[in-house]
Design brief:
The chain contains eleven helices and five strands; from the N terminus they run H-E-E-E-H-H-E-E-H-H-H-H-H-H-H-H. The chain is mainly alpha-helical and 251 residues long. The strands form two sheets. Strands 3-5-4 form a three-stranded antiparallel beta sheet. Strand 1 and strand 2 form a beta hairpin. About 9% of the residues have low confidence.
Length: 251
């Protein structure tokens, strides 16, 4: 249910290159602002009753895509960009997402609160910095999971990706950065068109201790039940003739 009332659009938004990247980014951002709750609200999420706080909403990519006439894949990229830029935070369920607009209170509070904030000059700044740091650390941990969960919902593929990451991090000078993860997923898409093949490729690299992913070897492909690989053929007549010549000592 959409709340009645209005929202504020701060001029600082003009300085945000992510929000202003294109009309789709701006549309999704305005959608989130308009649909976020302004007061505590009890809702169900992951089959549990929770209390939405101001600046939070429950929605899904398909719902946003439908209402804004934007493709589902574009909405996915936009939300990931907002999350990477620390504009929002997301918690996932099987059906939807709990989205938190991180700077909601800073830009949507009333003028009196703004005046009080300026007058107080943040007497508890040290505590605020510590709190923000803890929130940022928790968010960074969730973002690491998001890279994989945004890529696939297949639990077997997710496990293979995490096992590969553990192997990479155990290597000397093998720190597996978020950028390296994104490059890995891009390369997997080039090498395989099914989750099963991607799992096999990852397992091949884990088994051999490789830092990257590579096309499946023929033996590994057969082991995993794939038959769409080149098979060697022989000219049996020619082979028989060569064996006869060898037997006669002519070779």
């Amino acid at each position: 249910m959409i709340e009645q009332g209005w929202i504020k659009l701060h001029r600082k938004m003009l300085d945000n290159p992510v929000v202003w990247k294109d009309s789709d980014h701006l549309s999704v951002w305005i959608y989130l602002l308009l649909n976020a709750t302004h007061k505590d609200m009890d809702v169900l999420f992951k089959s549990k009753r929770i209390t939405l706080k101001p600046g939070q909403l429950i929605t899904g990519r398909k719902s946003i895509a439908s209402q804004l006439s934007i493709s589902d894949s574009k909405v996915k990229r936009v939300l990931l960009a907002f999350e990477s830029d620390q504009q929002i935070d997301r918690q996932r369920s099987n059906q939807n997402r709990l989205i938190t607009i991180l700077n909601w209170c800073e830009y949507q509070q009333n003028d009196q609160q703004n005046d009080q904030q300026v007058t107080s000059k943040r007497p508890a700044s040290d505590q605020q910095v510590t709190t923000n740091k803890n929130v940022k650390n928790d968010k960074n941990e969730r973002m690491k999971e998001n890279i994989y969960s945004d890529y696939t919902e297949n639990p077997n593929l997710l496990k293979a990706l995490k096992d590969f990451e553990i192997m990479r991090n155990s290597m000397k000078n093998g720190k597996f950065t978020d950028q390296a993860k994104k490059l890995l997923l891009t390369e997997l898409n080039k090498l395989a068109d099914t989750d099963e093949k991607k799992i096999a490729i990852l397992e091949q690299s884990i088994f051999n201790g490789w830092k990257g992913v590579f096309p499946l070897k023929q033996g590994q492909a057969q082991k995993n039940g794939f038959d769409n690989f080149e098979k060697r053929t022989y000219d049996t007549a020619s082979l028989k003739e060569k064996l006869l010549k060898k037997g006669r000592g002519e070779l």
